[in-house]
Protein 1
Amino acid sequence: MTNINVDFEEYDLPNGMHVILHRDTALPIVALNLWYHVGSKNEHDGETGFAHLFEHMMFQGSANVPANMHFHHVQSAGGTLNASTSFDRTNYYETLPAHQLELGLWLESDRMRALAVTEQNLETQRNVVMEERRSRYDNQPYGTMMMELFARAYKMQPYRWPTIGSMTDIQSATLEQVRAFHAMYYRPENASLCLSGDFDRDTATALVEKYFADIPNGEGEMYRPFVHEPPQTTQVRDYVYDNIPLPGLMVGMHIPDMNAPDFVALDLLASILTSGESSRLYRRFVYEARIAQSVVSFAYDLELPGLFLFRMIAQQGKTPEMLESMLWKELDDVRRNGVTEDELQKAKNRTETMFVRSVATLASRADLLNSFHVLAGDAHRLNAHRERIQAVTLEDVRRAASTYLTEHNATCLHYLPYPKKSSEQ
Amino acid sequence: MAAGNSTIDRSMPPAPGTPKDVTFPEWFEHTLDNGLKVVVYEQHALPMVAVNLVAHGGSFYDGAFPGLAGMTAELLTKGSATRSASDVVEEIEFLGGSIGSTAGWDSISIGVSILSRHVARAMEVIADCARNPAFPEEEIVRVREQRIADILQNQSSPGMLAWERFNHAVYGDHPYGQSPDGSVVSISALDAAQLRDFHAGRFVPSNMVLLAVGDVTPDEMLRQAEALFGDLPAGTARPTAGALPDIEPGRRVHIVDRPRAVQSSVLVGHVGIPRDHEDFIAVYLLNMLFGGYFGSRLNLNLREDKGYTYGAHARFDARRHAGPFSAGAEVRNEVTDAAIAEMLMEMERVRTDPVGAEELENVKKYVTGSFPLQIETPSQVAQRIMNIELYGLEKNYYNSFNSRILALTAEDIRRAAQRWFDPDRAVIVAAGRGGLLRNTLERFGAVELFDAEGKRIPNVETQAQDT
């Protein structure tokens, strides 16, 4: 195994904010990465998309930084920045020239302390987010496959609505809700800050103290849904029509959360099945039988129990039924006979290479450290993760397949082109 | 909580520290006797290596067969004299690596990315693929089928539809006006003899660069290069010169009809600038300010002020010859014409009004300050070294880049805009609801309507559609 460790130190400020410091002075750059442990799963039915809309509002002004000046300050310092929202978390990040570290801390602390947003900002961002939804999902071929599957696979868990939210809910978001959301979730005890790159350790700790230590925690208990689906006993299936030329198939099976012992075996199984052109299902579906144009699978790593997902696009003239029946045949083989030693070894080799690639930039290292701290409870698991992967056995993989990749545990969605009406051009 | 901290002044941004100098890293070059150029950039932070064998001349030379370079490239990893397609991919993927071969407008290449301990073996595989490609018939059939399915897929993607229509409207039948992925017709017609011929004309040592970056040493790479390629005769490459025919600019308004679209994908632009042109750096800064970053005029106007779009941007696709300039955004149906009017207005404004001192200063600070971020990984460095190779830029191009940016004045930007922006003769393309767009875009010029396959839709059939 390759001997790479991402070295870091970590501590909490008295107000509960977590701090992770990873020093690497190869280039005079520093990455700031700030996670808030809140995502769309903290939303309620009827208020979907709020966590993400809120992320946009974090760029719309804080006590000392007028609307859009956040972007302006970072970019004219030679930095890059962005933010993203998922089911489980929201992250904000900047990569800056090292001598601009303090600027980044000033900006992030200002919007953690006090937002200063207006009704007009909110109106514009509601529009921007509705266009985002159209650009990324509604107007994209196959763009809604995932949300349509999640909506049917989950009955209870708050993953059943998409992070982007529904148009109706986005439209009805109010400024009052924006303020309440900030007070509820954007508090130091719910945040983890990682600095990665070229900084002096003592200077950095002093600056973090200076800008973040006096930020108080809000009052009231944060809403943290801990809902688990009851086990699924019968298959769910449905059909969706979309503006697409070739039909598709999406299948999802319930699996445990990302920290459960079986998760690593499922992760490797996904690699064995569809990672690379030599993978099992790519060979069967795309190369040999030529019934699929593409085949993807992955174990979705989520804080609450997630899904093992398959997504295939049919080759011309082939149907989702053909894809599905071959998928079940292939999965039956894996459940009965497992996979080969070579396949498992290859998946481990590929995972190792992917790990090395994933730590190639300061920004990605910072994000991974925060990810392991916030969602796995311990940043050290970043370095320990590879040992967990090496420890997976053939029997672990076979058992994971036969436990989770079953017919009754699956939600199957056939994606079909709109029927051609003669009146349409 | 630390009580003593309540007195910090948060009202102003903190002063920056002292910047450290960053220079573009050194790299090693050596040309073998047969003309193969070996380029090595060493960076040992991670145990990974990327090796690419790059030949000059790509999709620009597709001629009457769009997709020729791309399909030739793809077939390189699909079997050699002694390895089947499956052998190739299995051998590399088992070691955790990835192998790929691809064509750009100006080059065709095959490469691997792999842990450094496996690099010798991986290089042997790419040398075999590059020297002895078999172009097996059954693999050609497979790739052809895949590519045709991809082309069909693209016909449902609004962004791809707009982009292909835009290029065709600007460049007509020249390869720059065709998709480098080809068409159903051209892909169906391509055969092994054409692919073999395209390969033979490019993969000769005097026309190739072997570029290795990451955890390797020049000594090791030179030894490998000599062993794997040293015996090849120098050869003569197919001419890689050639010129772009004269393109007659002129306002055209093309709509690609997507009946159920909930947004329009808009592109506005015309012929741009060749990569090696002396104005390139001024145009780079001009475009950044106009539509190249979040703080650009287009994005602040269309997104942050009007809320028409999730993002607006502009780009000069600078190639060996003058590739396209385009401003683009995905906007909701009802504001498509308003968004286009704003794009044209912004193009005109930067031509007439001098850029303010503060705006110019900010964009310069962004471009020059983010330089170290552009050279963080070996692959970022590799891409820039390849730009120098492919476009014949001077060797210290990236080290003089910042000072040349800083030297530009507001007048330089305006002059560049006057020469390289031409709103009156810009082509306008929107992929969206044909009936709606036909009515609203007429104010920009005579509208022509096309379907997803590129066929012209006559007037009468669409008038009553989807209002």
Protein 2
Amino acid sequence: MNELPQQLANGLILGAMYGLIAIGYTMVYGIVQLINFAHGEIFMVGGFGALTVFLWLPDGFSLLAAVPLMIIGGVICSVAVGTAAERFAYRPLRGAPRLAPLITAIGLSILLQQAVWKWYPDAKKDRGFPQFGGDPVHIFGADIQRGDFFLIIAAPACMLILGWYVNKTRSGRGMQATAQDPDTAKLMGINTDRIIVMAFAIGAAFAAVAAVGYGLHNGQVGFKMGFIMGLKAFTAAVLGGIGNIYGAMLGGIVLGVAEALATGYMHDVPGMEQFGGGAWKDVWAFALLILVLLLRPQGLLGERVADRA
Amino acid sequence: MRNRSALILTTVLTTGALTLTACGSRDKDNNDDNAGDKKTVVIGFDAPLTGDLSALGIGMRNSAELAVKTANKENTVDGVEFKLQPLDDQAQPSVGGQNAQKFISNDDVLGVVGPLNSSVSQSMQKPFNDASLTQISPANTGTELTQGDGWKKGDKKRQFKTFFRTATTDQVQGQFAAQYLYQKANIKKVYLIDDQKTYGAGLAASFKDTFTDLGGKIVGQDHVNPEDRDFKSVVSKVKGKGAQAVYYGGEYPAAAPLSQQLKESGAKIPLMGGDGMKSEEFPKLNKKAVGDLGTSVGKPVEELDSAKKFIEEYNKNYKENMETYGGGTYDATWAIIEAVKIVVDDNDGKLPSDSREKVLDAMSKVKFDGVTGTVSFDEYGDTTNTMMTAYQVNKQNKWESKFSEAYKPR
């Protein structure tokens, strides 16, 4: 049986998740040159927000109808945390040496993780997440789980909305201007503080969408889930060219597909038997990152500075 | 570009820093109230009380606490008041090592129960050995912990005089699982996956040897990362190999999504694992657990007469499930209490000044009827009780015992 379509589908779905989270890293970096390492935790908070909404709904409520509500709940939670982080943790440090906000981000990441661990009911271990029943759908030789259609639809939809927003709307253009030169943008009458908050909020909202996808995909959320996903998404952002929103999605998908193919096929390469399989997939993904950065230090799409947002 | 070096520095720093973040808080236990003229003996306890594996760890802590309470209530050892000092190791060897030092520096600690993870145990054995402090693990199944790395070649050597356990070894458990699958479940082709930890890899290795010896075929082997929750790529591979079952060496947090994704991929075959997978949490986290198999040490405590009282008391006092190791932990704690009793009885009802050494010596004499059966230890510190049970998840999504036997290692 040919498992290539299946592995590509696995990689695409995983990559879409990475990409959605990576957008948060890339937008914030593009505007304030800060790696917001608490972003993985904002993703995690979104997952718990969505779960909370689901638990509030009466039993027997259709999951299909619940998903939009869960997205709203998740988005509200992560945007609230994301913008609060910007306002209270990062804004006071604007203009400070770059290490200060970085350490703050790490501290914030620990704080959020521990807060969920401590106060969310029963969150000291993984919590189950609702899932779509039913058999997988067979398309192009791959079995796709029903829950994964969420990501397949949500990721391109989010990208389209974001592209339209950045290029066509007034505040989107303000965002581009701020990214290129914050001082001049300010002189031109752009409220850069507001733009920065917008960047954090959009990143957080996308992370929440990714978190709902994560929950539907894996059937559970946990307080630790933001760490690895955040690290991978950050990698995806760098791979695609940090600062570029399309690069973030591309980087995510390349990373996801690389992981899936490494798991599926590295065994079959002569002499590499022991370096294949699930345990080595991260090694191959990062090897790819190093290779890309050696050849293109700016990342895959890093050159298109004009599209920065 | 101006920002590049800062970006690289950021990446390096953060990756490093985030790896170190896992140092949480720890309970401080410093009420030294001596009840009357009673001497306080502290029994240390170490297990993951937070994180993924906390369900197992908390069940263990409650069981150990119950043993201590029972001993105090029944006045098992005259003139001695037992106290439990539970520490959280977060399933991390480094934290376990720090906890070990804490126990050692407290002179009232005469024995330690725990930990859950074999890998954590490896960081505790040496310090305990140097301090002559007795350690009994209810859950460590890594064969080399007692018998040394040479056990596969038949070259068994006791590693640490202070290490004992009430759990049977991975060797026994993996063999038992292989035999059960091959002979009882009539499954001849298995795909093998492990999580590369001491426990998981040991279990998988032992399973593989026995299964191929019996004539079964391992159609493929893979390793996964225990922190992962997405195994779609791995299960896609399993599907094409014609396996009738997947054997997983690892624990329930990863086993649950692995099993679910395995079934979702269209491969309608069961996942089998060891006692790390046979947790009540497993069917809760996994919506397609029905049919999955697990082995565990000892008879199911619910079926043992000796355990009736324990279960009753436990359920009266604690709301958390006792989980897989509840009975074994109670027995491990009780073994230390028994050893203290022997020491005190031999010393005219008083605790001697070199209590730690004396307790250690007494361990070889300990023999009593515990929750999981007769508790005593052989020359390696292993339990003499090799009762094993195979379980399967039934239609009600609960583990159900299928088959028990006192397994003789091959």
